């Protein structure tokens, strides 16, 4: 973390018509903005008032604390419970308890730091991508994992003449407003029909439900055209829990049932820092000139189907049993 000190809390915006919250006072007491709620427990509506007071969230405060107090004295990474203190007073994480003795003569015995565990378990900081739109407060020792999957992690505009650095959601708006790239919503598990973009054209797809942004980008490949699809996000680490996707890309001409170009692959993630050239990706669809310029004169169609994969697919299936199954694809693509 770049700052030497960080706030620790999960404050909520007390405006906008939200119910009054308890406020922590410096002397350790708790003020109620409407003390009458507690006093009402003495009267005829006492039972309901007591329930209202008990239902209030725990009061929260913002404080500043030295970062060193939340880091292991041995490995120097953020502490996570359970924590332990050696006889010399060094606080270490569970992993370092067995090897701290190499650098500390007082590491013969350890005591569990139960009170510190409670603090470490609850200490939160604002997401580093707050300025890009993320409003999450993250448990301090989980910050790295959160940043790997945060949907607000900033990405680059792939246009070489543009220097915008923003969240994927804001990039999608920028693509439409400043570059006139078509933006369309796509339902997972269902084919989406697009025009085959020219070598310099791009298409933007936004996933229904989760708002994930996908970029369909073409480039010349000799006489053919290469088309690739990427998920626009700063982090796509499956281990950290980022949603994973697979896709099918195919090009067909309605009046020509004999020829078809198709590719299926997992969807890669990119922050687009180096632009996005389809032919330089690991997987891309090569559309031959025979499909680009069919004898019938019909314009070819680019079909895109994106499916959730892994844990994201299981979660989506549990939420929506009626989701379109693979058998809904055209027969020749099954």
TrEMBL record:
The keyword Lyase does not apply. It comes from Setaria viridis (Green bristlegrass). Keywords: Metal-binding, Transferase, Ubl conjugation pathway, Zinc, Zinc-finger. Pathway: Protein modification; protein ubiquitination. This is RING-type E3 ubiquitin transferase. PROSITE patterns: ZF_SIAH. Its EC number is 2.3.2.27. One of its GO terms (biological process) is protein ubiquitination. E3 ubiquitin-protein ligase that mediates ubiquitination and subsequent proteasomal degradation of target proteins. E3 ubiquitin ligases accept ubiquitin from an E2 ubiquitin-conjugating enzyme in the form of a thioester and then directly transfers the ubiquitin to targeted substrates. It probably triggers the ubiquitin-mediated degradation of different substrates. PANTHER family: E3 UBIQUITIN-PROTEIN LIGASE SINA-LIKE 4 (PTHR46632), RING-TYPE E3 UBIQUITIN TRANSFERASE (PTHR46632:SF9).
